Amino acid sequence: MFLLRWMWANLRNEVLVLPSRILALAWVVAVLLLPLAFPDAYVLRIATFACLFAIFAASWDLLAGYTGQVSFGHALFFGAGAYASALLSLRLGLSPWFTVWIGAAVATVFGAVVGFLCQRLRGAYLSLATLAFPLIALGLLFAFPDFSGGELGVSGLRRLAASATGNYYVAALSMLAIVFGLWLLADSKFGIVLHAIRDDEVAARASGINTPRYKLAVFALSAAAAGFAGALFAHYLRIAGPSTLEVALSFQVVIWGIFGGAATIYGPVAAVFILYPLTEWLGSYGAFGELRLLAFAVIVLLVLLFMPRGLAPWVRDKVESQCPRCKQRNRAWRSVCRLCNAPLRLGAA
Amino acid sequence: MLRTLLAAAAAAAIAGGAQAQTVKIAILGPMAFVQGENHWAGAEMARDEINKAGGINVGGKRVQIELIRADTNEIQSVPDATNAIERVITRDKVDFLVGGFRSEAVLAMQEVAADNKKLFLGAGAAHPQLGAKVEKDYNRFKYWFRVTPLHVGDLVKASFAVLGVAAAQFRQERKGATPKVAIIAEKAIWTEGIVKAAQANFPKMKLDLVGLWQPSAVATDVSAELAGIKRSGADLVFTVLSGPVGIVVGRQMGEQQLAAVAVGINVEAQKDEFWQATAGKAQFVSTLETVSEVEMTPKTVPFYNAFRARFKKGPTYNAAGAYDALHLLKEAIEKAGTTDTEKLIPVLEKTIFTGVGGVIEFDKRHDLIFGPGRVTGLAIQWQDGHKIPFWPAGVKGIKPFKLPAP
């Protein structure tokens, strides 16, 4: 009873007070209840992929959005997780429930290595350097086809759950846990340090922050999340192939990140949940579907033209305002701050 | 008002009834690319022919074919391909699946077809692993049959046989001299096995292997490689090319006036536009093909001509595969008297069906049986701007292979 009252109090005072949080709650409820409303295997497949790519997009945002380490080769971590889990599961017969964690661990190592090698690089140089890593990984896969399956990849993997609904819930719960975890991390002191590194690394170092260590940590953390998504992806598709390392996937995640709004975590997640089903829906319309990439590009360009900070911050700014005194967020239509009673608009008192 | 409602209800009932009188077949392919375009074109031709002739006789009831066009976007995205196949199965409620091209994507699509126990007739992917899965886990993957192409292993056998023909002609024309053969294979994983097999088998075929050159699949200049081949004194160039480099090889061989003739696999040389793309320099370049204007079977030439008349260009193997797949399905359904997949599988396994590219019979992997009297593919040579079929021998319409003057 106490727990229920505590939960209700939190819900009323922390969540229902802001439209963005209400929206997030509605989205969580929708994600959890989706199989009840749409038990259709096709819808569940799209939603499962959306969940997996949402983890991937959020992981990119932690690295690129929060820390300013814009990676153009994020598919490396996705592919590393996919291949590591697939190979261990297939060659050693280990349970996929175990190997997905190893996939994430292998991706973490890859992240740390890439982070270490790119530590002295900034801006475009860093982005271009990261672009090279998945290409090197692809070259290695093709160089050892007996081990990696070559151009065809590793197929015949076991799924984590037998049914479409089961697989969906594996992806959805993983996504909710990881995205919420990343959001908490980004909202913590650790996240503030990442902001500082992105905005002025020299100033951050001058303040006593060990920036190389933080950058290395964020590379590893981001890679771990991407690798976990890759591992789940491989077991869901039952194949880990070179497409998990393709440049197109690396750029796709950049588009999701920029479209949704960088340095938000929830922005890229929202972008995936909008753009992925949208392109699929466009694809289902006969001849028009074949123009889906064009339609996709037009939509992304229009959003970036009118919402340069991305979709999620734009929506948030429309429905919420920030108190000039205590910096807390309020509903846009409030005239005084809900916490400090400071006027939110000129002339309001 | 009541009459209007009754009329509407009757119309709806008739429409519903009409819908039930169709067999729904999904055509899966990368529709924005030439492969998907050809899947669809071949399937449309077969559908129109079958429907015009009264449809399919399912246990005494005539039903029409309804095609569902599904863009798999598989060249760019594997998940998109699985989404497309899931959509046609669960949303469009198709009865059968035909198509596929990129092996990695088809492997993933094969899983979705197996999950849903839907018959999937492949018409594009060549990797042997697709058939190996049928052998390894028959109960799960028995729904997969490869109507075209031959798998890679058989394509290698065919290309060696064609090289043997060219070599024999060389010996005959050059008074028994041993032909010197150079290999030019694009630097890609799929060519590695073929190159190894060539290096192991050419000496056994009494061919003098003079070297291996491996340009990129997208190279825009191979003059250095061709200069090396020229210096090696090669008489025949065994090509293993699928990318745009095939055009560059054809054009620059002509420009450098190589005395050697290209024989083997050159996917670009299969296209009608090849001669123009090489600025007319690709004289005597040859490649394996699937369909041409020769009587591989009595159905080949009518299909080829009808396709050309309707689409103003020649068919690729994807078109022939999709066309054969639909006719094969029709025959199997009529034999079984049902559209029940489980009952159709044993019928297909025993079927010997005359298609446009050869006589289709499946082995235990549900792959095509390769060889004379079944499916061999064919080989064409570019001669004065025309694709001239020269292999296999003994087929009506086959013309002589030509070597340049010494």
Summarize the main sheet of chain A. 2 strands, antiparallel
Q: What's the quaternary structure here?
A: heterodimer
Query: What's the β-strand tally of chain B?
Result: 15
Biggest interface, chains and residue tallies = A-B, 30 and 34 residues
Order of helices and strands of chain A: HHHHHHHEHHHHEHHHHHEE
Question: Structural class from helices and strands of chain B?
Answer: alpha/beta
**Proper CATH architecture of the largest domain in chain A:** Orthogonal Bundle
> What gross morphology of chain B would you assign?
elongated
| Ends apart, CA distance between termini of chain A | 40 Å
Number of domains of chain A: 2
Note the main sheet of chain B. Answer: 6 strands, mixed
> Low-confidence segments of chain B, ≥5 residues, pLDDT <50?
9-19
Please name the fourth-level CATH homologous superfamily of the largest domain in chain B. Response regulator
Structural class of chain A: mainly alpha
CATH level-two architecture of the largest domain in chain B: 3-Layer(aba) Sandwich
Order of strands across the main sheet of chain A: 1-2
Structure description:
The complex is a heterodimer of chains A (349) and B (406). Chain A is an all-alpha fold and 349 residues long. Helix content of chain A is 72%, strand content 3%. Chain A has 16 helices and four strands. In chain A, strands 1-2 form a two-stranded antiparallel ribbon. A two-stranded antiparallel sheet of chain A has the order 3-4. In chain A, helix 3 packs across helix 12, helix 5 packs antiparallel against helix 11 and helix 9 packs across helix 11. The longest helix of chain A has 27 residues. Chain A is globular and about 70 Å long. The mean pLDDT of chain A is 93. Chain B has 406 residues and is of the alpha/beta class. Chain B folds into two domains: 200 residues, Rossmann fold; 152 residues, Rossmann fold (3-Layer(aba) Sandwich), CATH 3.40.50.2300. Chain B is 44% helix and 20% strand. Chain B is built from 14 helices and 15 strands. Chain B starts with a helix and ends in a 15-residue tail after the last strand. About 3% of the residues of chain B have low confidence.
